[in-house]
């Protein structure tokens, strides 16, 4: 099944397709702790959640995109449990630590292979990643920050609806997350004006500073006169980052890791210390001169981007992150056409690790599904 076929399929047809997939068969073979899931294996729970979605009071009023996003979230929210399930030797309970994080990567790979549109795919990925947060919102020290943050990382309305179905889609005798917690989550989001929309920060800089501060003030509006703008390109090798820059930021000087490697005759598999050091100094030269520039590298990992963003922030730069990802078949062709192509096996390994930028990372975030 490809994406066009899946998007036209009924609720039941999508579930039937999923049941034939290896990740679903793995869930069917994965047991759960009876304290939380007396209904049995992971796939049994998954099908119960899919059924409960259609019983939500709001289901009939949802559009096709929201229904599809919720159904895919249901199918994948616990899909990484077979990869993470362990028996806790201290408690004797079965646990699946970090299954939501790994689930995000798993569903991204499956939907990428189906050629799901980038925005729809990342909506589902974020719902899978944060699906467990609403039930535990009252355990957060700052509940307002939690719902505001989730409004920019995902969609509170869809998280709430999915959490209802997830809670109901299990043996009620073992339900450990009462729905009262979920209703509190909804009220908190509504009280903070971010249940069915992102929290309305006064400026992009106010948003970014709020998420950067350990003890943020939701109503503080910082001064936002910047020294320059840094355009950080993000994407797999062959995605079209150079092409996008040439078309949309033709006058910007560019600090490119690929170009520095070529100058220094450093292979991508060699130690990158000298390359990073040179790139850092070239960035600093532009920043000291208050000159806007582009920083061009793969930048597919959040941790990598945070180090560069820290440098740019130190010089009071405005940051825009441009994430480029065409369909994989297009990307692989573009890579083959490059003067220095990257082995396709390397690209697939990198694709499995991709973490597209979020609104917690830059003043502006743009996702591009082609290089045009």
From TrEMBL:
Arranged from A to Z, the UniProt key words for this protein are: Nucleotide-binding
Record-given protein name = HD domain protein
**Per the UniProt record, which residue ranges are transmembrane?**
none
In its UniProt entry, the species of origin is given as: Allorhodopirellula heiligendammensis
PANTHER family named among the record's database cross-references: MULTIFUNCTIONAL CCA PROTEIN
> What Pfam family is a match for this entry?
HD
Q: Which InterPro entries match?
A: HD/PDEase_dom, HD_domain, P-loop_NTPase, tRNA_CCA-adding_enzyme
Name one molecular function that GO assigns to this entry. nucleotide binding
Ranges for the HD domain?
Answer: 42-136
